[in-house]
Amino acid sequence: MNPSAPAAMHEQTIAQLSAGLAAGQFSSAELTRAFLERIERSNPQLNAFITITAASALAQAQAADVRRRQGQAGPLTGIPIAHKDIFCTHGVRTSCGSRMLDRFIAPYDATVVERLNTAGAVMLGKTNMDEFAMGSSNETSFYGPVRNPWDLNAVPGGSSGGSAAAVAARLAPGATGTDTGGSIRQPAALCGITGIKPTYGRVSRWGMIAYASSLDQGGPMARTAEDCALLLATMAGFDPRDSTCVDRPVPDYVAGLNQPLAGLKIGLPKEYFGEGLDSAVAQVVEAAMAEYRTLGAETVEISLPNSQLAIPAYYVVAPAECSSNLARFDGVRYGHRCENPKDLLDLYTRSRAEGFGAEVQRRILVGAFALSAGYYDAYYLKAQQIRRLISNDFHRAFEQVDVIAGPTSPTVAFNLGEKVDDPITMYLSDIYTIAVNLAGLPGLSLPAGFVGQRPVGLQLIGNYFAEERLLNVAHRYQQATNWHQRTPAAFA
Amino acid sequence: MSLGVAEVAKIAHLARLAIRTEDAPAYARNLSAILELVEQMNAVDTTGVAPMAHPLDMAQRLRPDEVAEPNQRERFQSIAPRVEAGLYLVPKVIE
User: Fold this and answer.
1) What is the pLDDT of residues A107-166, one digit of tens each?
2) Residue A364 near residue A326, CB atoms below 8 Å
3) What's A87's domain CATH number?
4) Is B54 within 8 Å of chain A by CB?
5) Which is nearest to A296 in space by CA: A264, A252, A255?
6) How many structural domains compose chain B?
């Protein structure tokens, strides 16, 4: 490759593409066509997209070019992105990875989609995901698994696996995701990209199909922290239509990226480096900590003593909320309806059994059990109490340190089919991410190295509304390292 | 807690899911394993710990009781499996 030649469009970050558009090096229409061609070529292999919206993407791109000529362009105007298929998109199928919504054409846009549309971003399509965001490997999707661009035999992680694979394979420079127990951070880690789950309430959940309402949070996935800052600046903000959305000003995430790290105190929870963590992953994380010390940060060991309770509490809270949220799928108002129901009960039970896959049904059943008469105190109430203990652990830790760091996932990407028949083993791949959702804190995953051909993610956890600091801490690392610039050979 | 097929059938009814008889043993096994995982919570005494229902301990925001949404019945019913004269059709409920 000639080092003086300009990088191909797909090799550039959102920040670089934004500068290229502003300088008139290419139009949004050209940029959008380039990504659509890449999607057309690679999607049959990766299965990262459920729906490709080529015609509307080109129309949006042309509108963005007009807007730019009128001097009305912002940093995301004309930038192509992909949306996880959990966000409602007006007039476009929104399947949530489920047969239940295979023919569901959303009648409105989610707030996140609306905000990105208003900023002039171009939607390339809707990305594949675990069914109703329930999964850590993307294998529960009705549309089949997504493959990891670094190794086609490996899973991309989940549930936002399509978004992660699309960004990693350079089919889109950025994408939206959602994270209930790790669904942005774990696939970001397994695919070697950057993703941030904001503080609960930072990004509107309106029009984002609900899984576990007290845990769900949308966020951006891109190659760099800088790109995540650009996307989050547009996605975040108050929305009166989501009653849990927080009315609080959105900081200028991009402006905060370059703060020096001198004096930064990073806490390393000893519970995140114990049994269950792959030793090669641990080495990568330790090397990243050495890099942070070179950048002026101090690392100290801390303890989050209730960490081992996060998965047990999560598998009560999340299924309980899912059984309640998914009760709306009744075969009457929208979604799948069975053939020739003999009575109303048959209509409900058969439509739901046909529309939902096995993992979704398992979680609905666990939730229905945990909430049933006589079991509420032992399961749901107990889990909510554990949640308080976990949250208190973090409160105490943030009295000592500015951010917490550790592995995003205990291993690199596992093979397709490896864990699909064993739900419990699958659940353990979110062991370091779930507590963050239970406490409602922001968490970020960024690429920090490889084990063999497969990427390792470093997780950074911040205090409430410390997204700006997390993005800054990630950005400074990315200024000093190049893990985030690596491209899977087959998709260079 | 270990669940048998009869309990799975009861929960499936509560959840309005038609579980096939031949699938019930597998669900019973999976659900029992998940409950066993969940019961690790019992290792900790939580007496007197206030349950945490919301990550930010926020109070529910209220808004004035005014009509905020226009009527969009036709638009929303256009994606329904079966409608007639503005009504959702279901099998006969009253004999």
Assistant:
1) 999 999 999 999 999 999 999 999 999 999 999 999 999 999 999 999 999 999 999 999
2) yes
3) 3.90.1300.10
4) yes
5) A264
6) 1
